[in-house]
Amino acid sequence: MLPQQCNCAIEKRLRDDAHEMSELLLITGCAQLVTLSGPAPRRGPALNDLGIIHDGALLVRDGVVAAVGPRRKVEGLVARNGKYRRAEKLDLGGRVLLPGFVDSHTHLVSPASRASEYEQRIAGASYEQIARSGGGILFTVRKLRAASSDALKQRALAALKNFAAHGTTTLEAKSGYGLDAASELKILRLHRQLLELQPLDITSTFLGAHVVPPEFRRRSNGADAYVDSLARKLIPAVARAGLAQFCDVFCDRGAFTVAQARRILTAGRACGLEPRLHAEQLARTGATRLAVQLNAASADHLEKINREDISALAVSNVVATLLPGCCFHLGLRDYAPARALITAGAIVALASDFNPGTSPTLNMQMVLSLACTQMRMTPAEALAAATINAAYSLRRHDRIGSIEVGKYADLAVFDLADYREIPYYFGVNHCWLTLKRGKIIFSRVNQ
Ligand code: NIG
Ligand code: FE
Which partner for 201 in 107, 170, 287, 356 could form a disulfide, CB atoms 3.0-4.6 Å apart? Predict the structure, then answer.
């Protein structure tokens, strides 16, 4: 069923006051209000429990959810309570309302696309072959070092606008295309600047250990020397400047070993940066076991994990962040074993891995489609993975990832009447309205 035409006052407001909302907002007309309320993180069968309210309503005060429930109940509360009566009304016309997507793995700041490598791969070259011949991450590093902060900023701002237009309200952003102190700091400072320039929340991760930089490759013990300089100098400098919350390592074949990753993440933790890991994407290296040993916030990719890794994740609090956009874009068949992870009881999250090399998409709706058809996650599991569990991996589940009293009104409205249609009608942007802390930051109302 298609939603009815919207009969609300949004159009007028957009004209009148350039998207400014009053401090009280009553949202009605939700065919489904998908709350995802309840304990976080979600494991096993709880991933299917979306807490859907049919014909639900939401009262937002100062950007925070003040009441949520069946329309009659919330409208009754507003009518009875004098201080709520002046609430501005927003009727969604029978659409689906969700918590905004939390994209917990992105490489937001990058200088250019790698469309030529895409073509090379289609012709038969593998990701690793291209990387070994000086392309891949090193191509992006060369370009980023040469790019001005302003050019990078304009590109990131355009991407962030697009994230919001697809229903994402919070994202994690990694450095890792600089690989020298000046360029890594350029990226991390940009993350901080971007917070002031646009409405999305950005959680910053230091990924100095993405690959060994070119200037260290010429030395015989270059990788260890680079790891040493990260651990002794750059990580403490990043932490001192408060430029990152997390520290990440690409621990995989052709990047960093488990021993090197342990050294870096331990140094990060000593400075207050929580560990995350790119683990087991290209080969099984033992990175997942390291993530569990270190009680990392998240182990990401996991395409090559085995049964022992799944069991270890299942009894840990490490979030298994799956990135199906990579397999899709690289044309690979072996997606991460989402079903086995969910059955075992691991905390599964989904993210875009937005980056120019392996996953040039920021569309979490497409990520849901891939999770459903390629990894056999149910639409409900995929949604919980892309919101509340992703929020848990960023340590933000107390404020975002679900629609509950006291949490931020970070919301995405889809031009559909059933949340399952988001992954079902794949390849199309269904986002109709995005709100960040109760303010409209994207709207398709006039289109
Ligand atoms: O998450 N695997 C390492 N990092 C990225 C790819 C980066 C690139 O190829 O530019 C990833 O897939
Ligand atoms: Fe990545």
Answer: 170
* Tens of pLDDT, residues 434-443: 999 999 999 9
Whether residue 233 lies inside any domain: the answer is: yes
Q: How confident is the model at residue 446 (pLDDT cuts 50, 70, 90)?
A: confident
Q: What is the mean pLDDT of residues 62-75?
A: 97
250 lines ligand 1 (CB under 6 A): yes
Which helix (H) or strand (E) segment holds residue 370: the answer is helix 364-375
Q: What is the DSSP letter of 210?
A: S
Q: Confirm if 386 and 368 have CB atoms less than 8 A apart.
A: yes
Determine if ligand 1 sits within 6 Å of the CB of residue 249. Answer: no
The answer to the question of residue 3 being in a domain is no
User: Three-state SS for 97?
Assistant: strand
Does the structure show a pLDDT above 60 at 302? Answer: yes
Any idea which ligand is nearest the CA of 141?
1
Q: Mean per-residue pLDDT for 379-390? A: 98
* Residue 281 CB less than 6 A away from ligand 1: yes
For residue 179, which ligand has an atom nearest its CA?
1
Instruction: Give pLDDT, residue 445.
Output: 87
Name every residue whose Cβ is closer than 8 Å to that of residue 256 and which is 6 or more positions away in sequence. Answer: 209, 211, 212, 223, 227, 249, 250, 264
Tens digit of each residue's pLDDT (9 = 90 or more) over 331-354: 999 999 999 999 999 999 999 999
Residue 360 belongs to a domain: yes
Please give the residue range of the domain that contains residue 93. 8-99+401-443
Whether residues 309 and 412 fall in one domain? no
Tokens 């006051």, residue?
17
Going by alpha carbons, the residue nearest to atom 7 of ligand 1 is 357
Q: In the numeric block, which tokens belong to residue 302?
A: 């996991």
- How many domains would you assign to the chain? 2
Contact indicator for 173, 107 with CB cutoff of 8 Å: yes
Whole-prediction pTM: 0.95
CATH number at residue 195: 3.20.20.140
Alpha carbon distance, N-terminus to C-terminus of the chain? 19
Q: How do residues 6-49 score in pLDDT, each as one tens digit? A: 444 444 444 444 444 459 999 999 999 999 999 999 999 999 99
